[in-house]
């Protein structure tokens, strides 16, 4: 019971962070829509989706594989030090790759690449914030508060400095500045408490990349499913359409955002339970999963019946109602897939099955988009997201049932 209590406390700290992660974007969306218009917000939304891909690449799944390794280290300072050092160096090498590509793109495509450097740098630094370490040791209070501070800094700067004359790159410079409070504090805190291991071999790095690969591939595909809509629309249609779709999606994703901290807080617990026995892990997931899905259903109902209010508040054009029902349904399946995929398959060591399921779902997403290219682009993206998410749910459940059968036969 003590484990669940600690997980609940950590979830509260992460909810504080995630609340800032979504309250702040909603607040600045209101400001950006007012100052930049729907097309300007569409341009910002597209580049923000690019930043998220950069962040996902540099993170490389270490938010889960590194957290899992630290949670399973039994508090050994030597093990924790080695894991932290290896993961940090692995991320820095990926960051170097990102900067090299961004610089190359900038110099060869300068006419169309104005925001690329600041977007790449912001995504890179965001991924380097060591939240995963604090999740692994289950001490989230301080880093959570500094993450919130960073968001508040961005909010204040955005309202103070962004006006109708601002460019997209100006906004991302503010994102860049806001990264530093949690980044600096996180490494200062860790420097005070562990000894960095300077002797890191190629084999150590290869081991970390191998451990993070399935989660990375799954997370990148997850980004394709959850963030690919704005990215694809940004490449294929007008900024105004991107802005309408992105505005509805951003508000709806606030629901999913409520469950990210709960998932992150209970993932180390579920990983530890699965390390003791598969049956204990299943029981642990059952407790947290039912709670998450019940809360999700209630949140969806609240958002649906209050849609006329927040459409008016954010000045979202009426065309956005065409996406609302599909995206809210997608939210439920997205939370369900977190329970089935991250909390069950990944935590139990079956991340490869999770990744394989995402491969299929990603193919379905792309097929739905390209088979319906001649119809309304926003509706196509929303339908593609929902179809692929439902397919993923089916695949994950089948994989879990298969593992249960195999485990119980061997028992």
TrEMBL record:
Keyword DNA-binding: no
Keywords, alphabetical: Cell membrane, Membrane, Transmembrane, Transmembrane helix
InterPro entries the record matches: Poly_Biosynth_Transport (IPR050833), Polysacc_synth (IPR002797)
Intracellular or extracellular location(s): Cell membrane
Transmembrane region(s): 12-33, 45-62, 83-108, 114-133, 145-162, 168-190, 211-231, 251-269, 290-311, 323-342, 354-373, 385-406
Primary location: membrane
Short name of one Pfam family: Polysacc_synt
Topology term for the membrane: Multi-pass membrane protein
Gene Ontology cellular component terms for the protein in this record: plasma membrane
Domain of life: Bacteria
Name by which UniProt lists this protein: Oligosaccharide flippase family protein
Species this chain originates from: Pseudomonas donghuensis
């Amino acid at each position: 019971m003590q484990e669940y209590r600690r997980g609940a406390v950590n979830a509260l700290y992460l909810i504080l962070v995630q609340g800032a992660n979504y309250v702040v974007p909603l607040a600045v969306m209101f400001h950006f829509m007012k100052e930049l218009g729907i097309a300007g917000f569409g341009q910002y939304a597209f580049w923000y989706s690019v930043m998220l891909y950069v962040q996902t690449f540099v993170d490389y799944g270490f938010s889960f594989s590194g957290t899992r390794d630290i949670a399973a280290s039994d508090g050994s300072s030597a093990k924790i030090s080695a894991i932290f050092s290896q993961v940090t160096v692995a991320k820095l090498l990926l960051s170097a790759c990102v900067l090299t590509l961004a610089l190359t793109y900038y110099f060869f495509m300068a006419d169309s690449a104005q925001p690329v450097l600041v977007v790449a740098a912001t995504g890179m630094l965001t991924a380097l914030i060591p939240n995963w370490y604090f999740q692994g040791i289950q001490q989230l209070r301080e880093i959570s508060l500094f993450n919130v501070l960073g968001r508040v800094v961005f909010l204040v700067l955005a309202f103070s400095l962004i006006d109708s004359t601002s460019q997209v790159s100006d906004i991302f410079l503010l994102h860049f500045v806001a990264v530093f409070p949690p980044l600096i504090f996180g490494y200062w805190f860790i420097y005070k408490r562990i000894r960095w291991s300077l002797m890191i071999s190629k084999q150590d790095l290869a081991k970390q990349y191998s451990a993070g690969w399935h989660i990375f591939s799954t997370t990148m595909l997850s980004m394709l499913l959850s963030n690919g809509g704005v990215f694809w629309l940004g490449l294929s249609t007008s900024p105004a359409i991107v802005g309408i779709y992105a505005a509805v999606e951003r508000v709806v994703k606030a629901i999913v955002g409520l469950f990210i901290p709960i998932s992150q807080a209970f993932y180390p617990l579920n990983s530890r339970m699965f390390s003791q026995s598969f049956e204990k892990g299943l029981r642990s997931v059952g407790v947290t999963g039912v709670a998450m899905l019940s809360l999700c259903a209630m949140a969806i109902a609240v958002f649906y019946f209050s849609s006329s209010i927040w459409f008016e508040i954010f000045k979202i054009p009426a065309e956005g109602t065409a996406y609302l029902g599909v995206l809210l349904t997608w939210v439920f399946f997205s939370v369900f897939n977190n329970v089935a995929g991250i909390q069950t398959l990944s935590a139990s060591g079956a991340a490869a099955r999770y990744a394989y399921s995402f491969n299929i779902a990603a193919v379905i997403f792309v097929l739905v988009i390209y088979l319906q290219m001649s119809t309304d682009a926003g509706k196509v993206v929303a339908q593609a997201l929902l179809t692929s998410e439902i397919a993923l749910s089916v695949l994950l459940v089948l994989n879990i049932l298969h593992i249960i059968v195999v485990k119980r036969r061997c028992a």
